[in-house]
Input
Amino acid sequence: MKNVTIYTIAFLLISASCFSQLTPLKITKNANRFHYEVYDYGTSIDTSVLEIVLQKSVYQIVSEEKEGNFVPGYASTATFVNLDLDSTFSRATFSDNERYEVASRFSRTDIDYDTTTVNGLTVYTCNINSNKFEFFVQDYPFDLNPTPYYGRFKGVVVAFRRNGQTYLQLTATSFDKNVGKIMSDNANYQRVTSRQLSQLKKDKLVITTRIFDDVQLSWGKKNDHIDGDYRANVPFDSVLHYAGGTLALKRIRLPEPDLVLYLHLPADEAERLVGSRYHGDETKKDIHERDDAYLRSARRAAEYCAARCGWTTVDCMHNHVLRSIDDIHDEVLRVSIAALGKL
Output
């Protein structure tokens, strides 16, 4: 079954990060929780949290997850490492409660690491696909690696650097007496290969996100030097972006979606909602919110795209009354299910 897909585009300004020279960390006595910070873009602007929870010779890697209902077809994943078995177990539980498990060897013999010693830490270095990876490892009774895919090192990984930028760093440890048994019964999971699990995720997942943001739609009509019909004359996944100060079209090569939903709200109602957000204080509006003509032009561009490109429009008003969130959600769900039935 194909995915129902709508995409969003985001552009980030990434700066280099400088971390102090790494030294051994003072680890809590009998520590069973190891707290890591993950810097997805090499800086603290996008920091997430990851923990190793240790129970005897087994540990689980726990990442920060948002609470909420399951997305249809979404798999909640967990990774366990059994040091005695020298094995890792990647587990996936889908929204339909089907459970699958991929087992692999923790120790890697197919990656060649060079080792050096820096400030009392052992540094394991390798090159993969032109990327330089560095793992800073501190002596410890247990071999703990929050990125077990890269193999087993003698001790606990305190930092992981990629191309000179710190991607992950151990920042704290603690002892938690309430840590219980973290390995569940293997009988609950069907053993599959990694390729089979990857295919299951593709078959089950319904991706719903935005393909254009407001800026893309706004520029489509506002700039005289861009043909107003450009959305109909270029591939759907072409987006507008800045390159050296010049506005340009760029192909991002995404799979074509099966359904594009456009949530339509009349300009007057949108302006009323913006005003109520700031309790009538016009000074709190941003430069776009203060420009009614600009907002109406952007809305006309969106309506044009919806009509010309075959998007499905969901009206957020009924008989001049704003519909409830649940009511709009029900219509989005009905339209999505109908699209799924045609695939």
Summary: Confidence is low (pLDDT under 50) at residues 1-19, 220-228.
